[in-house]
Design a protein that fits this description.
Blueprint: E1 36-41, H1 45-55, E2 61-67, H2 70-80, E3 84-88, H3 96-106, E4 111-116, H4 121-129, E5 134-137, H5 142-154, H6 171-175, E6 185-190, H7 198-213, E7 217-221, H8 229-232, H9 241-244, H10 253-259, E8 261-262, E9 268-270, H11 284-295, E10 300-304, H12 311-318, E11 322-327, H13 331-346, E12 354-361, H14 369-376, E13 380-385, H15 388-397, H16 401-404, H17 409-431, H18 434-438, H19 443-449
Parallel strand pairs: 1-2, 1-3, 3-4, 4-5, 6-10, 6-11, 7-9, 7-10, 11-12, 12-13
Antiparallel strand pairs: 8-9
Helix pairs in contact: 2-3, 7-17, 11-12
The chain binds adenosine-5'-triphosphate (ATP) and magnesium ion.
Adenosine-5'-triphosphate binds near residues 195, 307 and 384.
């Protein structure tokens, strides 16, 4: 393995080592398509050489130059206009973050991928603020490097040169009647206590809703720091919510489609960032925009959350049509659920939008349902059986209950919940005028006004 300072050439062979060849995943024949033009910037000659070697067998990537410092990199970027600059952060003459800012001035279409041995949140935040699109912590593998370059290139803003001759719009564009705006329903799964089962239920609920009515279903992991949906569905976080942040102003269905991953069930999944510190990149406003865009594409948007009542989570709850409050029959969870309802009440949030789901129901359990309802002062709307063995196997294998163990009572209970939810949402749709449904309810605004919550 290379030293900490250098990228690790794992999973791909280097020259002189058997098995080396231009067979890298995604390699294309030379000249078939435009290649990604990369400029490498690092003050250590060995790192520059290593990076060049790692990239030389990728048919779709071309290293067009290397620079030994920040100042030189600005000059080269101005002259060469690279698609991607791979930029080291710690350099003696001019640090990579300052150089990155300058490069974006002289070559605005260039995308920046920062590299550092430090993965501190501050470095990451400063890089992203400087306009970087990706952050690689050394040592990284050649696959991580190539994937990052391709992803950043793929997601670059679609700035197209204006056509020389103004084309007439295609016929179908002229004659097509305006499409009615879709109004998907967002359902947030929330628990005021961790480990209660939100992610398990979110995953299977999304699959159930997709199955039941042949509807378009999105599943979103707004549990930003430690999101589990990738693991539960056996999906790699190749692209995540973090990739949408730099493009939030130009967010559209094409961009969302590129970042969301397709699960074999048909559900499209928007994963949480791959590292906890990257959660800091996502602001409530981003969540609001993402949710609104998803509603214009999907019928149902199932949103997983974490157990905090942060601005981020309140934004999600605010933008959701229904909140499934997931609890388990234990005293700490029941106590927190009662507090959650008190907060919602203080904020004038319509309590009928909150559906109480009792998970891990064990007939031999010591706490009676009537006592739970009396304590929380809200009826339990749905019950899901306790089946530790099935839930654990599903999580460990990355095969959701509704795919691998559909006949178990736990799976049937989630199917029943999906059915109940769908009926409920259809009822709401018929009863409420459209404008009223789409208006956010302003939980965040109210939380600061409320005398009880500070
Ligand atoms: N009905 C159930 N019966 C038994 N075990 C369950 C059930 N639902 C979930 N579990 C188990 O409970 C644990 C927590 O589940 P899960 O990760 O879905 O909860 P969570 O609320 O999303 O947790 P976190 O706070 O970590 O996000 C897991 O081990 C899961 O397998
Ligand atoms: Mg979870």
């Amino acid at each position: 393995m290379a030293s900490l300072q250098h990228p690790v050439p794992s999973q791909r062979d280097l020259p002189g080592i058997p098995g080396t060849g231009a067979k890298g995943q995604g390699s294309r024949g030379m000249g078939e398509e435009k290649r990604i033009r990369v400029l490498i910037v690092d003050d250590i000659p060995e790192t520059r050489e290593n990076l060049q070697k790692l990239l030389q067998f990728e048919g779709d990537i071309e290293v067009i130059g290397t620079a030994a410092g920040g100042a030189e990199s600005i000059e080269m970027a101005k002259e060469l206009g690279p698609d991607i600059v791979l930029m080291d952060i710690n350099m003696p003459d001019l640090d990579g973050i300052t150089a990155a800012e300058a490069i974006l001035q002289v070559s605005p279409h260039t995308q920046l991928v920062m590299m550092s041995v430090q993965s501190e949140a501050d470095y990451l935040r400063r890089s992203m603020l400087a306009g970087a699109r990706e952050f690689l912590t050394k040592p990284f593998t050649s696959d991580e490097l190539v994937t990052a370059i391709r992803r950043v290139y793929r997601l670059q803003p679609r700035i197209e040169a204006p056509p020389l001759i103004q084309r007439a719009p295609p016929l179908e564009e002229v004659s097509r009647p305006p499409q009615p705006e879709k109004r998907g329903k967002a359902i947030a799964l929330y628990s005021p206590k961790g480990g209660v089962g939100c992610s398990t239920i979110a995953t299977n609920l999304a699959i159930a809703l997709g199955e039941e009515g042949k509807k378009k279903v999105a599943l979103v992991d707004f549990s930003l720091q430690f999101g589990d949906l990738g693991v539960l569905l056996n999906l790699q976080p190749q692209s995540t919510i973090a990739d949408l942040v730099p493009h939030i102003e130009e967010l559209d269905d094409i961009l969302l489609d590129e970042v969301m991953q397709a699960h074999s069930s048909g559900v499209k999944v928007l994963l949480a960032p791959p590292r906890p510190e990257m959660a800091d990149l996502v602001a409530p406003e981003h969540m609001r925009k993402i949710l609104a865009q998803l509603k214009s594409i999907y019928d149902y948007i199932i949103v997983d959350t974490d157990s905090s009542l942060s601005d981020l989570i309140l934004t999600v709850l605010d933008g959701s049509d229904k909140i499934l409050l997931v609890i388990a029959p234990d005293i700490p969870t029941i106590k927190n659920a009662r507090l959650f309802f008190e907060v919602m009440e203080a904020l004038d949030h319509p309590l009928e939008d909150v559906i109480l789901v009792l998970n891990k129901v064990d007939r031999r359990g010591s706490i009676q349902e009537e006592n739970i309802e009396a304590s929380i002062k809200h009826p339990i709307a749905s019950r899901i059986s306790n089946d530790r063995e099935a839930a654990l196997a599903a999580a460990n294998q990355g095969i959701p209950l509704l795919i691998g163990q559909k006949n178990r009572p736990i799976s049937q209970d989630i199917l029943a919940l999906a059915h109940q939810l769908r009926e409920e949402l259809e009822k709401v749709e018929k009863a409420i005028p459209e404008e009223a449904v789409s208006e956010p309810r302003g939980l965040i605004r109210r939380i600061f006004r409320s005398p009880g919550i500070r």
